[in-house]
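Morning!

This is the sequence you dropped in the shared folder:
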Amino acid sequence: MAKTKAKEEKDLDEEKPDNSGAEAGGGAEGEENPEGAGHGSKLSKKKKIIIAAVVAVVLVGGGVGGFLMFSSGNGHEKQKEEVELDEHGNPVNKAVYYTMPQFLVNLNSAGKSQVFLKTTVVLEVSKATDVPYIESNLPRLVDGINTYLRELRSSDLAGSAGIQRLREEILLRVNKAITPVQVNDVLFKEIIVQ
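The structure's back. Tokens below.
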């Protein structure tokens, strides 16, 4: 009985093609796979799913990256279009100017002679929306500037260096008084010392 069983197995082995090298878990030649011949196809399905997932992630990532790159590029183009140029191709300054009331103060003097300063100050801001805030705080601004100007002596205003110091001091005091709004520069329409 043992011989007939061995002969039947030998006959079956001769009829089957040798797949032992093609199978993923293939053992020695002539061994039968107890799980059946479908085991190799399961691995290839898993590989196909993994490859498809990787390809999908790469495509989605590339699509999102491309979208972000092109959408941010359009934003830069819009910003470039908003800059106005004059006839020579130079950018046009869109600053807003606010002219304060005229100041006429008596300067600090040591003798009996009186020295007066008459000036008109113009404030430069970035946006037109800052002007109402300046107007609502105008009494505070005028008071701060008047107080500072009354402490000056005529020698403090001598030359361009004196005017530059005056500009910087007024700018500092104005920005301190209207903190959320930022004044970019202080300009003088007139400065008369008599």
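Headline: The two ends are 138 Å apart (CA to CA).

More detail when I'm at my desk.
O.
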